Every structure is written in structure tokens, then in C-alpha cells.
């Protein structure tokens, strides 16, 4: 049975107009127990923001880590996405990829930093995503290395086009990435084809390690779904967030 303390969560909703995307983008903001705007907090930025909260139960997990595991309190920002254009925004071959990545780095980050006491060091901004959300998080880190250096990727959709971009990087010694993939993801049917996610993640791991990135990598029994990822979120968050 879930401890009731974990369910007492402060989650705010924000609306932000994006000039790049020419639309309003919705954000979900988790504030930790004991939140004090006079303090400063590490921050986790999640792709698929609604899913991270509803299916990943990231706010409940965060409360447990902070209240029971001694993790330093942190803020979570979930950037919501329209699933109809998700591939267009998240995949490097998508028609909205450039606009989305620009909006994320140049509009979402300043918007949050103007309203919430999040830390502004790239070492205390963590990007998190599942599937294409994992791959676009890594793209964002490579495109904006002054902003981001830490990535959580759960079953990253590291398609060939993404791997080609990663392969062009020379020095990734500044990058730290936590990766996991499910062993039952060898023939996942996505909207752009059928993919072996285990192979995609193994190849991407090697690409990153060959360029000096610090990679924490695991393969476990699991399918390409939130039932698998939800259970791995505590380890992912604990990996990057210091204990208080």
C-alpha cells in the first residue's frame, strides 16, 4: 500500500507561448516537500511531461526519494506534447525537430528559471525521456552543451539518423547518461517501422563511450511501456541527484 505522504504532492500547471512553435505549450511543475522559494533546487526536465506524471508516477517517486531516501529536494518540469506530432518534434528527421529543440532550450528553460528557484548549472539540470523522448534529450544535450550535461534515457529510440548525428561528435567527456532498455524490445513496432531497441541502445552506448561519455547502462526484462520504465525511475533519479 502506498504511503499517504507520497501522495501529498504539489503539482502546478503552467502555460507558455512558444514563438518557435507558434503555439501554447503546457508544463507541469512538481514542487518538493518543504518547498521554499528562497532556496534553490536541482531540476529534472521531462519530455512527454503528462505521461511522466500520469504513467511514470514521477511525483510520487520523487516524494518517496526525498522523504525516505534522503535525496536532496528537487523540482520536476514536465513538458507536454501532442502525440499526433510527437515524432515530428522529437525525431531528427521530423519536420518540427528544429523548432521544438529551439523552443525547449531557448524558451522553456528561461521561462522556468524566471519563475522558479531552479539551479542554473548544467550539472544540476537533468534531461529525461522515454523512447523518442530519450533520444531527443540526448540531441538537446549535444546541441546545447552549455545548458545540459546529464541525460536519463529509458528505451531510447536511437534510430539510425540519431546515431549518425551522435557519431559526428568528437569529445563527449562532459556528458553523463543513464540508459536502460528492456530485453523484450527487440521487435517494437513504432509509427515509423519495426525496430530492435536492444541493438539500437547497444550501438548508441558504444558510440557514446568511444567519445568519452560516462555511460551507466543496463538491460533488463521489460517491454517498451511505462510498466517497465516506472520501476526504473527511482534508480535513474537517484543516480543523478545528490543525497542531502
TrEMBL record:
Q: What GO annotations for molecular function exist for this entry?
A: hydrolase activity
Superkingdom of source: Bacteria
A Pfam family this chain is assigned to: Esterase
Which keywords fit this entry according to its UniProt record? Hydrolase
- Report the InterPro entries cross-referenced here: AB_hydrolase_fold (IPR029058), Esterase-like (IPR000801), Mycobacterial_A85_antigen (IPR050583)
* Protein name stated in the entry: Alpha/beta hydrolase-fold protein
Taxonomy, top ranks, is: Bacteria, Bacillati, Bacillota, Bacilli, Bacillales
Amino acid at each position: 500500500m502506498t504511503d499517504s505522504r507520497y501522495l501529498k504532492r504539489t503539482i502546478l500547471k503552467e502555460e507558455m507561448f512558444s514563438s518557435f512553435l507558434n503555439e501554447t505549450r503546457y508544463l507541469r511543475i512538481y514542487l518538493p516537500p518543504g518547498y521554499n522559494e528562497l532556496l534553490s533546487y536541482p531540476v529534472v526536465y521531462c519530455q512527454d511531461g503528462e505521461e511522466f506524471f500520469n504513467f511514470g508516477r514521477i511525483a510520487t517517486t520523487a516524494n518517496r526519494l526525498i522523504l525516505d531516501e534522503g535525496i536532496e529536494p528537487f523540482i520536476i518540469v514536465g513538458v507536454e506534447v501532442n502525440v499526433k506530432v510527437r515524432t515530428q518534434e522529437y525525431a531528427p528527421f521530423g519536420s518540427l525537430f528544429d523548432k521544438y529543440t529551439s523552443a525547449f532550450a531557448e524558451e522553456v528553460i528561461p521561462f522556468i528559471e524566471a519563475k522558479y528557484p531552479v539551479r542554473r548549472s548544467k550539472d544540476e539540470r537533468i534531461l529525461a525521456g522515454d523512447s523518442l523522448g530519450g533520444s531527443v534529450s540526448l540531441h538537446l544535450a549535444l546541441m546545447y552543451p552549455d545548458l545540459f550535461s546529464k541525460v536519463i534515457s529509458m528505451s531510447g529510440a536511437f534510430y539510425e539518423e540519431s546515431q549518425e548525428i551522435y557519431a559526428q561528435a568528437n569529445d563527449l567527456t562532459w556528458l553523463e547518461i543513464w540508459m536502460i532498455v528492456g530485453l523484450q524490445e527487440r521487435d517494437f513496432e513504432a509509427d515509423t517501422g519495426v525496430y530492435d531497441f536492444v541493438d539500437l541502445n547497444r550501438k548508441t552506448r558504444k558510440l557514446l563511450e568511444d567519445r568519452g561519455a560516462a555511460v551507466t547502462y543496463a538491460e533488463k526484462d521489460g517491454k517498451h511501456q511505462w510498466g517497465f520504465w516506472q520501476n526504473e525511475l527511482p534508480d535513474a533519479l537517484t543516480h543523478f541527484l545528490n543525497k542531502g
